[in-house]
Each structure stands twice: as C-alpha cells, then as structure tokens.
Amino acid sequence: MTLQELREKDVIQMQSGENLGRVDDVVFDEKTACLQAVVLRGRGHLFGLLGYDEDLVIPWAALQTIGADVIMVAADPPPARGSAAKPYNFCKR
C-alpha cells in the first residue's frame, strides 16, 4: 500500500465511530525504517482561511484494520494533538 492510498481513506475511531479525518503523513524511525505513527491534518476552519486545528498523531499500533475505504483505530482516550503527542516506536523485529 502506498502513502497516496492511505491518504484516500477516512480514519474512524472504533469505540465512538467518530471520523477523525484522513492520513496526511507518516512518521518513521530513520535508523530502523519502522513506521511509528500516522499524522492526520487538523481540521480547517472556513476552508482553512481561519486556520487549522493541531495535527492528530496516531501510533501505528493503534491501527486495527486498513480496509477498502476506511482505517479503523482503537484509541481510548483519543490520541494527543500537535506538540502534546508522544513519540512512538512500534517496530517489532
């Protein structure tokens, strides 16, 4: 699967059914080349003219299923946004 294919899918929180947005970027460890997290762009206000909310960082391990149209995540409580987000390392070798 490519990053572009990931970006076309809605990310849904399994517990609440909330649509968290779409994948904008991925985070990986440059030393091990392991994926650590996906980044969802903050929601825009008035089409982005009034700015955006902080980005949402979801650990790769929280992704439960990547389906044809959606990505299901298990995250309770909801993941931190922006600078409050913790770095993750979920590479299992």
From TrEMBL:
InterPro entries: PRC-brl_dom (IPR027275), PRC_barrel-like_sf (IPR011033), Spore_YlmC/YmxH (IPR014238)
Listed Gene3D superfamilies: PRC-barrel domain (2.30.30.240)
Origin superkingdom: Bacteria
Domain called PRC-barrel: residue spans: 3-75
Protein name: YlmC/YmxH family sporulation protein
Organism annotation: Candidatus Gemmiger excrementipullorum
High-level lineage: Bacteria, Bacillati, Bacillota, Clostridia, Eubacteriales
